[in-house]
């Protein structure tokens, strides 16, 4: 029997650009994703989030769905360009009204809002006029924007996440160029990441100094896969550890210890920016909880440069900086996204985080499964997804039983939605979207969640 404690937080998650649509409605300014999607061939089938799943207009129906499926918490993100169309300066009251209404609707239905302040949709003006995350001033622009959010929503929102997955912003946006703003470089990811960390820390400092009366918590969400040593050779064990430090330690070490992992400093030299002593103080202990997005696992082996070279930028970071070769096991089931299903990897990652960062409160803010669902006789029988959730939650439960302070879990995602460079071709939702009518249909996995949340387990 699997039982979670009664105060375990059961949630599900989305992000603004992936679901809202209404890309230019009611005074919203363009974001880098609006613009990235107009470049031919960057997105599968040249799709975009202009309409999304029209959550902007259907939010009441969507909150009712959340409620009917038993979720206690809902993680969504605020579109910066809806609040500040030019990224700075003027505030758009209609944008404020949308999120304010959404928050009220959630609270009315006893669903606790968990709000991500940045889920990749940077206002376009900041990119074009100020070089986006490459400009150190971005940290103060971000601070000005979050201040508005704390002022306008902080009376009702008590759970804030500053940034979603800065690793993705840095590596996929500035390293591989497959996500907005579409740049390819082997040094810009480290610079962008540096400013992302500082922006996070400034936002937290502001919240902790000027908004203590709101009595909320604030943290950051990082993503990380597990890296399992391919063999028990010391070189491979070290390679796996190094891969984790380049992936998660890159962001979590500054936040828990005040500085980057030594192995990154050793290997990157001048490409890794340095924090000043004041900045280290600012960043250290700047997260009330450890937000984790976790999906998959890979083997890691030392790259001795004798043979196979994966791509220059392997999944996990800039691989030439790490000398790590990543592979998958043929025995591991694959999702439609080619991510392997490895529940024990989730357990091992939770354990690694707890050990390295001194047993923090952890929230899994995303975990989920991609497949090509089809609607048959009005139903979606996504048993593979259901199985994925069951196995990963079993791993979570085991972690909790062994003293790891995992306090909550958010399924990614509440809906099928715009899956970034993959467009609408990949489905992650527990609720199915018919993209012609935008009708929402609960999948078997959503009905399963409803049952297990009610029983706190199964
Ligand atoms: C996350 N990777 O993105 C995001 O937070 C979601 O918006 C997204 O829909 C979800 O996971 C599924 O993709 C990621 O390459 C994108 O390792 C890419 C990676 C990880 C997470």
CATH topology-level name: TIM Barrel
Instruction: State the helical fraction.
Output: 40-55%
Q: Report how far apart the termini are.
A: 6 Å
Question: How many β-strand stretches?
Answer: 13
Largest sheet: 8 strands, parallel, barrel
Work out the count of structural domains.
Answer: 1
Strand order of the largest sheet: 1-2-3-4-5-7-10-11
* Beta-strand percentage range: 5-15%
Q: Which consecutive residue ranges, at least 5 long each, have pLDDT under 50? A: none
Ligand species = 4-nitrophenyl beta-D-glucopyranoside
> What is the fourth-level CATH superfamily?
Glycosidases
Keywords: Carbohydrate metabolism, Cellulose degradation, Glycosidase, Hydrolase, Polysaccharide degradation
Family: Belongs to the glycosyl hydrolase 1 family.
Enzyme class: hydrolase
Protein name: Beta-glucosidase
How would you characterize the overall build of this protein?
This protein has 16 helices and 13 strands. The chain has helices at residues 16-19, 32-36, 55-68, 80-83, 93-108, 124-130, 138-153, 166-175, 188-210, 234-257, 262-268, 277-283, 319-322, 343-356, 383-401, 444-455, and strands spanning 9-13, 73-77, 112-118, 159-164, 217-223, 226-229, 290-293, 297-302, 324-327, 362-366, 406-412, 431-433, 440-442. The protein has an 8-stranded parallel barrel with strand order 1-2-3-4-5-7-10-11, surrounded by 5 helices. The protein has a 3-stranded mixed β-sheet with strand order 6-8-9. The chain has a two-stranded antiparallel ribbon with strand order 12-13. Strand 10, helix 15 and strand 11 (406-412) form a beta-alpha-beta unit. The longest helix is centred in the middle third of the chain and has 24 residues, at 234-257. The chain is globular. The chain binds 4-nitrophenyl beta-D-glucopyranoside.
């Amino acid at each position: 029997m699997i039982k979670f404690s009664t105060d375990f937080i059961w949630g599900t998650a989305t992000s603004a650009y992936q679901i809202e649509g209404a890309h230019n409605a009611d005074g919203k300014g363009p974001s880098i994703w609006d613009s990235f999607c107009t470049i031919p061939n960057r997105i599968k089938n040249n799709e975009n989030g202009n309409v999304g799943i029209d959550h902007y207009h259907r939010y009441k129906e969507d909150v009712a769905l959340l409620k009917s499926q038993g979720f206690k918490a809902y993680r969504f993100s605020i579109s910066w360009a809806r609040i500040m169309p030019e990224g700075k300066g003027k505030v758009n009251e209609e944008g404020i009204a949308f999120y304010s209404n959404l928050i009220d609707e959630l609270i009315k239905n006893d669903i606790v809002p968990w709000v991500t302040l940045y889920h990749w949709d940077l206002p376009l003006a900041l990119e074009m006029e100020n070089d986006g995350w490459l400009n150190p001033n971005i940290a103060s622009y971000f601070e000005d924007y979050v201040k508005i959010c704390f002022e306008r929503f902080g009376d009702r929102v008590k759970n804030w996440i500053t940034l979603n997955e800065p690793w993705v912003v840095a590596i996929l946006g500035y390293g591989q160029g497959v996500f907005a703003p579409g740049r390819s470089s082997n040094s810009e990811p480290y610079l962008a990441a540096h400013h992302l960390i500082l922006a996070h820390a400034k936002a937290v400092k502001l919240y902790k100094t000027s908004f203590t009366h709101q009595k909320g918590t604030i943290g950051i969400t990082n993503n990380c896969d597990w890296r399992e040593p391919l063999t028990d050779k010391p070189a491979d064990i070290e390679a796996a550890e190094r891969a984790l430090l380049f992936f998660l330690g890159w962001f979590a070490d500054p936040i828990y210890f005040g500085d980057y992992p030594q192995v990154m400093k050793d290997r990157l030299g001048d490409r890794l920016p340095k924090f000043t002593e004041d900045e280290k103080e600012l960043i250290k202990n700047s997260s009330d909880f450890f937000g984790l997005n976790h999906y998959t696992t890979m083997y890691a082996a030392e790259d001795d440069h004798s043979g196979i070279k994966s791509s220059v930028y392997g999944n996990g970071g800039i691989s030439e900086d790490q000398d790590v070769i990543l592979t998958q096991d043929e025995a591991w089931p694959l999702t439609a996204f080619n991510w392997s299903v490895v529940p024990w990897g989730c357990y091992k990652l939770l354990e690694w985080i707890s050990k390295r960062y001194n047993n923090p409160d952890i929230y899994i803010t995303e975990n989920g499964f991609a497949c090509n669902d089809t609607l048959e006789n009005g139903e979606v029988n996504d048993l593979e997804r259901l199985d994925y959730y069951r196995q990963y939650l079993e791993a979570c439960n085991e972690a909790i039983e062994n003293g790891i302070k995992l306090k909550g879990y958010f399924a990614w995602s509440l809906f099928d939605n715009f899956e970034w460079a993959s467009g609408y071709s990949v489905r992650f939702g527990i609720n199915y979207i018919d993209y012609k009518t935008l009708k929402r249909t609960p999948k078997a996995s959503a009905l399963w969640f409803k049952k297990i949340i009610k029983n706190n387990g199964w």
